[in-house]
User: Fold TonB-dependent siderophore receptor from Bradyrhizobium japonicum.
Amino acid sequence: MECDGHGLRGRADYFLRNTFKSTASALALGCLLMAVTPVNAQTAGQSGASALPPVTVNAPVQRAQRPVQVRRNASARRSASQRSAQQANRSTVQPELQALVGTAARVNAGTNGFVATRASGATKTDAPIMSTPASIAVITRDEMNVRQAQSIRDLLRYAPGIYFSNDTDFRFQNVSARGFSLETYLDGLRLQGGPFGAPRVDPYLLERAEVITGPASILYGAASPGGILNLVSKRPTENPFGEVSLQTGSFNRIQGAFDVGGPVDKDKTLLYRVTGIGLNADTQVDNIGEQRFSIAPAWTWRPSIDTTITFLTSYRQDPKGGAFALLPIQGTLVPGTFGQIPRNFFAGDLNYETLKYKQATAGYEFEHRFDDVFTVRQNVRYLNNELSYVEVQPGGFTTTGAGGTLRLVDGRTINRSYFSTNENLDTFAADNQLQAKFNMGPLQHTVLAGVDYQRFDFNNLARFAATNTLDILAPNYTQSIAVPTALFQNLDQHLSQRGLYVQDEARLGRLTVLGGVRYDWAEGNTLAQNTGVRVLNDDQKPTGRIGAIYNFDNGIAPYVSYSTSFQPTSVGTLLNGQPFKPTTGEQYEGGVKYQPVGTNLMFTAAVYDLKQQNVATVISGPGIPANTTAQVGEVSSRGFEGSVVGSPLPGLSLRGQYSYLDNRISSPQDVNFGKRLANVPMHTASLWANYLVQGGPATGFGFGGGVRYVHDMYTTNANNLTVPTIVPGVFLPAATVPASTVFDAVLSYDFGMRYQQWKGLSAAVNVNNVFDKTYVSLCTAGGCRWALGRTVLATLTYRW
Assistant:
């Protein structure tokens, strides 16, 4: 599919044009905030021992030991002279500023094994988790390595309050928290995708993953009330290093990966890192393969001790996109006429089964410190992806009759449909921030003001029609499939969002109050070129949050918070022809965090009351036509989340969680009032622990495992689904997906802990679903998906 402006020159113009707009906004923001900051507040930040640190995260120990070799430029030297003159006139002399901490050091400050004490996505200031009144979970690089996470869902398998379908569909990798989808961000900038071309990030390219649950619109604008998932890319480091890894396992898996980086020059003003991974494998479903190749070069330039800029780029290509089809409910969730449909059953057509995906990103993170009060940042990313997807999709079994006489025709013939789509997407995101750290009397302030901008330009061409059926007992996978001539969808869509926000972290002794407000403008122009229907959206919305947390000496920190969100609905209109309004979210939360003094452990517990309003829903009542849709719906989520993460003993790492969620449709006008939302479990629990032997003849040997429990859940919002059988008028209940309990395990060996000459070499075997439990992971009225069966991964890694 062709799209104007998608050549290399067009994409460069797109990037530069939007970057210029964003930079202009940043300059205006900086002038405004610096103009209104009180003079005495600036002075307080520059004088006395009570001044806050000049950066948001303390520098690593190794940086403090190294003499500062980064040279200042001419303007920086003048600035130093000015500072010296100012200091000479003060009674108290302040030490010279140290070099600005690099990005990689900042996002990983305080990380020890599975425990991260800071999270860049929670406040955009890398504030300590123990001083932030919000629910935050961080999956560190060490935890990813131990569990050998192969997908975004794998990353979050043991995270608190998280649920996803543990199936073979890797197109979207949807993840839910508190009953709503999590919005995915990469390095603090939103990842936007098309209907099928959702952006993809390989876990191997990441340093960590941060889950911030609850409304987060104050910092990120349009977002789900469930929260955000912020993925943090690997970045260049000052110390040279290297890693290569080979992996094999189930389904003929062959995977290789590398990660190298370090300084380019002796002064360490130029740093680099290149990370890459390639995979070729079959899948759980016959005739379906998976291939992906990713590379992510990154560079950091530090022209002075006050300035750093990191360029982050990546390219990904998936020649084979994996398995994703639903299967009939009869034979999966409920008994079929001829028994159970196998997990490896292929229901498509060999000549019409492709999913090819390409993705490229380019951006940068710029940071400059004016003095020990003001710091300015600009984060920018451009993303382009292209998708070509063709599939013969299975549906339900063929039926005959209606009402009380409805039955399956023969219980062996599946309806199928032809579907194809080509998608092309350009997105641009920029976040401009000005941070001021200062004291006003006994109050210590970290004020963050920002202007962000997002743009989404998308077009597609899709075809869809019923096609040949398939006999599951005698499947013919090379039938003559007619390609539809009529278009099913041909969208030309342009969306943009601009936001202004300000946040203040005010600290008085052990009390921290976090508050902020934001205002967003969201615009949309969607043209269905195959029908000529155009939908225009023009939405504006304020959001905010306020919270407080108190840190006791014994490590206990209780907190309360209130936050709001909004989420535009860009496609679709109401009966009166008006576009959908944005949905809104509102949450009250209270909790407690506990970090025992002198330990590497963190406990959290939270209760919350979350509502989403303006939900489009089917309504009923006197004089209302059947299937009438209106934006009067409301969904209420009330629940509890508890977690523990850390290392209670040397060599022992663990993560555990329990979550309770009562998620219901709470609008009396909704036809499903009082019912639970589909595919949302009420209870989830998990525990992972692994131990690495520290001494004796077994030094370096590691072992561990985990258990995951998911409560049963409804298949539809009506909570009462039944399906026909081959007997007329006889229906089977298919309202719930049964609960499941699955076990995982790992065995590892670090050769270098026992044999010095093998330092850096390690091996591991990971097994997910150890007992090969067969269970359904997701069901809708349209069909079900089997969960992944037993998967074995054997990995050999060498680091230097």
In short: The chain has one domain: 8-799. The chain is about 10% helix and 50% strand. Residues 1-6, 28-94 have pLDDT under 50 and may be disordered.
